[in-house]
């Protein structure tokens, strides 16, 4: 019998001592954490602490620039990937401004999200989980309420093959009743096996999910 202990399996998602910069501004300073499948992590802190920048670094956005450290998802490296390559590996960032495409209906926004491989949920499944979007499928997306736009932004992420969902301030400006609806959706996503990282000022709401 070997005296060497078996190596612990690597976590599903790993951030290993990442350091990122906006030009010469040192924003993300040595962040490390691990998550397993289905876990929800809340990143809390004051404005300017680098929470959103950490999400953008994980999503491999052009800025901030990752200069040191490693990011791994399901055994694959992300730190050497571009944003489009990370997206194809199942990473989706839902930014605070939601980036709903103007001039398109709810359904057209979803179809456009599905067009980029790998394909995720079918429309019928999306509408089953988001009945309010089903009711407004023909409505111009930018005329939705703030809460409905947040639902659409999350639904667009699910329209692709999703492994890691990054939510930046998902409750910003939403009424308490809508916050509870978004919380319910995040819990459902967790039960589907999707790992989620949330940046949120509302610490109580975020910690109820994490």
Describe this structure in words.
With 210 residues, the chain is of the alpha/beta class. The chain has a single domain, classed as Rossmann fold (3-Layer(aba) Sandwich). It is built from eight helices and eight strands; from the N terminus they run βββαββαβααααβαβα. A four-stranded antiparallel beta sheet has the order 2-1-4-5, covered by helices on one side. Strands 3-8-7-6 form a four-stranded parallel beta sheet, sandwiched between helices. Strand 4 (65-73) and strand 5 (76-77) form a beta hairpin. Helix 3 packs parallel to helix 6 (146-158). The N and C termini lie far apart (40 Å). Mean pLDDT is 90; it is low at 1-7.
Features:
single chain, 24% strand, four-stranded parallel sheet, 210 residues, 8 strands, globular, Rossmann fold
Write the layout of secondary structure elements.
Elements: E1 13-22, E2 25-35, E3 40-43, H1 51-58, E4 65-73, E5 76-77, H2 83-88, E6 91-94, H3 106-115, H4 123-129, H5 131-135, H6 146-158, E7 164-168, H7 176-191, E8 195-199, H8 203-209
Parallel strand pairs: 3-8, 6-7, 7-8
Antiparallel strand pairs: 1-2, 1-4, 4-5
Helix pairs in contact: 3-6
Strand order of the largest sheet: 2-1-4-5
As for the CATH topology, it is Rossmann fold
Helical proportion? 25-40%
Largest sheet: 4 strands, antiparallel
Q: Indicate the structural class.
A: alpha/beta
Shape: globular
Approximately what portion of the residues adopt beta-strand conformation?
15-25%
- Sequence of secondary-structure elements: EEEHEEHEHHHHEHEH
CATH superfamily: P-loop containing nucleotide triphosphate hydrolases
Provide mean pLDDT, rounded: 90
**Gyration radius over CA:** 18 Å
Q: Please indicate the count of domains.
A: 1
> Can you count the beta strands?
8
Unreliable residue runs: 1-7
Number of helices: 8
First-to-last CA distance: 40 Å
Architecture (CATH level 2) name: 3-Layer(aba) Sandwich
The CATH class turns out to be Alpha Beta
């Amino acid at each position: 019998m070997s005296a060497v202990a078996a190596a612990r399996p690597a976590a599903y998602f790993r951030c290993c001592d990442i350091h990122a910069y906006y030009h010469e501004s040192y924003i993300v300073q040595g962040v490390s954490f691990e998550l397993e499948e289905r876990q929800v992590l809340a990143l809390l802190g004051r404005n300017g602490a680098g929470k959103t920048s950490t999400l953008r670094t994980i999503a491999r956005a052009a800025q901030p620039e990752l200069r040191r450290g490693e990011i791994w998802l399901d055994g694959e490296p992300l730190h050497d990937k571009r944003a489009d390559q990370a997206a194809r590996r199942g990473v989706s960032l839902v930014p605070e401004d939601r980036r709903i495409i103007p001039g398109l209906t709810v359904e057209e926004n979803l179809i456009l999200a599905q067009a980029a491989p790998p394909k995720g949920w079918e429309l019928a499944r999306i509408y089953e989980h988001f009945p309010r979007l089903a009711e407004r499928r023909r409505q111009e997306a930018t005329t939705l309420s703030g809460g409905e736009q947040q639902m659409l932004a999350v639904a667009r992420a699910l329209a692709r093959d999703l492994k890691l969902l990054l939510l930046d301030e998902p409750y910003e400006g939403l009424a308490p009743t809508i916050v509870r609806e978004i919380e319910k959706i995040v819990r459902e996503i967790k039960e589907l096996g999707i790992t989620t990282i949330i940046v949120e000022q509302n610490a109580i709401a975020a910690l109820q999910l994490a």
